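Homework help board

Subject: predicted structure for assignment chain

Our instructor gave us this sequence and asked us to write out the predicted structure in token form, then describe one feature. I got the tokens but I'm not sure how to describe them. Can anyone check?
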Amino acid sequence: MIVNDSRSSSIRDLRDWLLLVALALAQFLVVLDVTIVNVALPSIGAELSFASDAISWVVNAYTLAFGGLLLLGGRLADVIGRRAMFLTGLGLLTAASLGGGLADTAESLVAARVVQGLGAALMSPAALALVLTTFPEGRGRATALGVWTSLGALGGTAGVALGGVLIEQLGWRWVFFVNVPIAVLIVPFVLGLVRESRAPAARGFDAAGAVTATAGATLLVAAAAGTADEAWIAIMFAIAGLVLLGVFVAIELRSRAPLVPLGMLAARPTWVGILSLALNGAAFVGMFFLLAQSLQAERGMSALEAGLAVVPMGLAAIGGAVLAGALVPRIGTRLTAALGATVGAAALGALALAGPASPYSVGVLPAIVAYGLAIPLVGVPSQIAAVHAAPRERVGTASGAANAANQLGAALGVAAAASVSSSFGFAAGFALTAAFAAAVLLLVLAAAPTLGVRSRPQSPRASRVRATARSAAAARPIPEPAVPEEGTPR
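My token output:
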């Protein structure tokens, strides 16, 4: 009997870990689709006749749909069912990937990217919920979240290298087609190993809030992407976007099941952390968008060479994640974020000053390695600050709001960087991303001392906040470490 029980337990453990690999692979796809298209943009723009100031929508269509609908996706998973939402999201992402690979016009490709983002917004929170319900509290869950986070982070770094290889060998359409066999591999594991689950008390969802927030953010991004010749159109878009965001606030105040309980944002560490993540996303993804193109347009690299040239930044970010994990317990979140923002702004400023005639090893490599180190030095403490003041039942919501802000900030950063570089050149675009990083520094310093959070050993909330921050970090294209234990504000 004991032998049979032991065998049953071993089989159950094997099933759980097979499921984890499948779910983490899905998260790998979500993050991969943020970065893999960047090195393909010159080829896509040439074949589908994108205007130079419109090519950013290949990136933004995905990040806007993903970030804008992420909270709604999590709510739908709780209400309708996590397995159902995961499979629905995976199906949408796969179909849209096939459509993107077959696109023959700029409009059809952007539409496919929107549907990809919708699929990711449905799939990612459902997958995370399935991980959390499969693995109980304790070492098993911590290990599972480590696997989840690591594969998600790997997707960001692998995207540029894999994109370069695919473009060089098979053409740009394969940066979309590659999703299809991976998705087909995931499906049987989920069908065979997952039982449907829902949140016990979940009722209703705020669809109106999700629509107005996403539409408002889209209009603001469209305004940021405008050119000087179309200033009046950009102004109209900006006004309409702000009006819709005002409607979103009104809806949230009246909703019985709001996407974001606005009272939660009243705590200064929460809103400063969320805003810092938005600015960090704007700087990082805006820089990434420019770098992948400038290496090809100004330095004559092939797509493969450009993809490999960016890999050192991803490796440096892993080191930065470890460094952030060591610094936060010692100097607190405020000083860690300030250090990261300072290094990041300096590195991006160096990229702006490096002319195309300077060798890659002198003008680009040191700057992107320094910036890779800086990314998690801002991201980790900002994530901790964002969830620190949230009550226990709202930690997931706070983390989700921070993740959504990071994605929407990324969309704004890409739009603004594309607009500026189209009018004034890549150097001006890099200077703008440096300004985003500098804005993080000013924000963090202005928030002193209320942003400061130090780790304290054996904090009763530490494991919960650590798990939440790890989980939210996995949805971003920025490698994050295990989030350190946190205690009380300094």
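Reply (TA_rk): Your tokens look well-formed. For the description, you could write something like this. The CA atoms of residues 305 and 336 lie 33 Å apart. That's the kind of observation they're looking for.
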